[in-house]
Sequence to fold (113 residues):
Amino acid sequence: MTKEEKIKQATEALNALREAVSGGWYDEPSEVTQGLTFRKETEVSFDIRYWGTWVNPEEARYEEDYDWKILSPDSRKRLDELVKDFGERYGVTITATTEEKCWITFRIIIKKD
Fold:
């Protein structure tokens, strides 16, 4: 597979994943960043905010405005299922990292030969 074909495959996978997460399963309206980010032609990524249910970790359970919330167990399970499903469906490696202020960064790593 050529580099261009790999990039196309990764972009198709991420566009499908982006559509899946922005079109449905969340408690608050999700905010998807515009466009895809390409890093050195080795990965494609996008960010989404407020997907799923976010809760304070145990050590911050009484904080009202906590910036480092974590996904609830149900949301984490659903996220892991999405990553696995789309990775297998498109034959790519996908990671999902939770970030500060309820952001999730999805990355598709373009596999090298």
